[in-house]
């Protein structure tokens, strides 16, 4: 009987419920941010390489 009373008391406590909600919400936001970064980083790297190639091939005229 004491075991059932302890389980009932444990199930009735709600002290950590808000903390769990915030942890799950924060993990979801971090996961979405990481996914967005992974998708954008490759395209950004390709664009950076193209810009660097264009700037390397440009010449500067020092005379009029």
List the helices and strands and how they pair.
Blueprint: H1 2-12, H2 17-57
Task: Describe it.
With 64 residues, the chain is an all-alpha fold. The protein has helices spanning 2-12, 17-57. It is rod-shaped, with a radius of gyration of 28 Å. The mean pLDDT is 87.
Q: Main sheet?
A: none
- Strand fraction: under 5%
Mean pLDDT over the full residue set: 87
Radius of gyration: 28 Å
Number of strands: 0
Unreliable stretches covering 5 or more consecutive residues: none
Shape: rod-shaped
Tags for this entry?
64 residues
What's the short version?
This protein has two helices and no strands. It has 64 residues and is mainly α.
